[in-house]
Every structure is written in structure tokens, then in C-alpha cells.
Amino acid sequence: MTLRQQIRFFFSWLASVLAMAIATSSSADELSLASSPLFLGTQVEPNVFFMLDDSGSMDWEILTSDYQIFYNYWLPFGFNEITNGYFFSFTSTVCGQSFRNFAYLYSTNVNTDNVYNFCGFAQLEASPEAIVYDWRVRSTDLNIMYYDPSATYAPWSGFPNANFNAARSNPQVGSAGYQLFRNLADFEYDVWIDDHGHTGATAQGNDNVTDGANGRIDLWDSHTTY
Predict the structure, then answer these.
(1) Taking the model in full, what pTM does it have?
(2) What gap in Å lies between CA 132 and CA 93, rounded to an integer?
């Protein structure tokens, strides 16, 4: 091999080594990229925040999915949907004749452990006519906290089975409702049958009622009471 060939071979080898070094350096840089913003400075281990809500609303016995007030099915008013979780109906026995938000099933005259006991959080037991106006509150398809006949209910862990004829308001020993009992022999619930709907965004009395299911629990849908 001549001197010129040796020099050419040396520079070819050197170029190959440099190319490999650059490629290795680039690959190493990609693997060591920061996984968090550099401006944060110090690293903090991931945290889990566990929160319990013991506010008064946790005591409610009614929690509705979004629905239309019963008036929309009577007359073409087109009121907006109820979206705050209350059951909104009419009463003539709770704080005078008026529309009220209902948050409880049972009257505070018996369930004295109800957290709220004033007009803004009415009880259905004290105003049964509210159910006459709108049966849907006794269906789990509207009131998601109501009895669901398709579910199997088990006692809380460490607690005995409830007595249907003497159910405690609260099974926790020492709680305000532990010594408050209720016979559930006359308990009723409704099973929804989706067989009517309406055209448009809201019901407009009898003007836009339709036959057939629409996936929403409407006042004029059929239902069976048990």
C-alpha cells in the first residue's frame, strides 16, 4: 500500500469513527431528556389527594338526573331542564302553596336526623301530592338514589342486614339516626317503560308528543307501580 493510499485509508477510518461518535452522542441526548419542566427546579414525588365530602347535601335522599319539569308535558311552556339534582314539583302543604325543591323522601317529623329542615329542602312524605304531579321521583331512572329493583343490596362492611320492618335511618352506632326506625312495608317504587317521546328540544304539552322510545324518562311514559 502506497503512502497516499495509507493516508486516504486513515482519513476514511477517522471519518467513520467521528460519525459513530456523533450518532452515539445524539442517541444518548435523546434518552436523557428531562421528563418535567426544567424551570421547576426541585422534583416532587407524585401525590394522591384523598377527600371525603361530609357536607349537608350528602344527607339528601333525592338526586335526579337532568329532566324536564312536569309542566312542560301539560302546556307548551318549554321550560329549561332541571340540572341541579333536585326534584322540582308543586306542594300546597310545605310552606304554603308553591313550587319547591325536594331533597328528602321522608318527613323531618319522623326522620329528625335530616340535616336540612326548611322550605328550600322539602320532603315528599310531607307533600304526597308532589308525587301525584310527577311519578318519576319514585323511579331509579330519574332519582338515581331511589330503590333499584335490578340491584342486589348488601349491608355495609361489618354491619348486619337491615330489618325491613324496622329499618334504621342510620345504621352507625351513636349516630343521630341510629334510634330512628321505619317500617318499609308500604314502600312503593315505579318501573319506567320508555314508550313515548317528543319532537324538538323540550316537551310542549300534547303538541309534540310522539310514540316510541326516546331514551329519556318522560312524564307521559308508561310505568308500573310496585
Answers:
(1) 0.74
(2) 14
- How buried is residue 70: exposed, middle or buried, by Cβ count under 10 Å (0-12/13-18/19+)? buried
> Which cell numbers in the block locate residue 145?
338514589
Question: The C-alpha cell of 211 is what?
Answer: 310514540
Q: Can you list the alpha helix ranges (DSSP code H) found in the chain?
A: 3-31, 71-74, 129-133
How far is Cα 107 from Cα 104, in angstroms, rounded to an integer? 7
CB 103 within 8 A of CB 121: yes
Predicted confidence pLDDT, tens digits, the chain (226 residues): 565 555 565 556 555 655 555 555 554 445 677 777 767 666 777 678 888 888 878 888 999 999 999 999 998 888 889 998 989 998 888 787 788 899 999 988 888 898 887 787 889 998 899 999 999 999 999 999 999 999 999 999 999 999 999 999 999 999 999 999 999 999 999 999 999 999 998 999 988 999 999 999 999 999 999 9
Q: Which three cell numbers stand for residue 112?
A: 329528625
Measured distance CA(169)–CA(41) in Å, rounded: 53
Cβ atoms of residues 208 and 199 within 8 Å: yes
Cell numbers found for residue 173? 352506632
Contact 115, 177 (CB under 8 A): no
Separation between Cα atoms, residue 125 and residue 141, nearest integer Å: 20
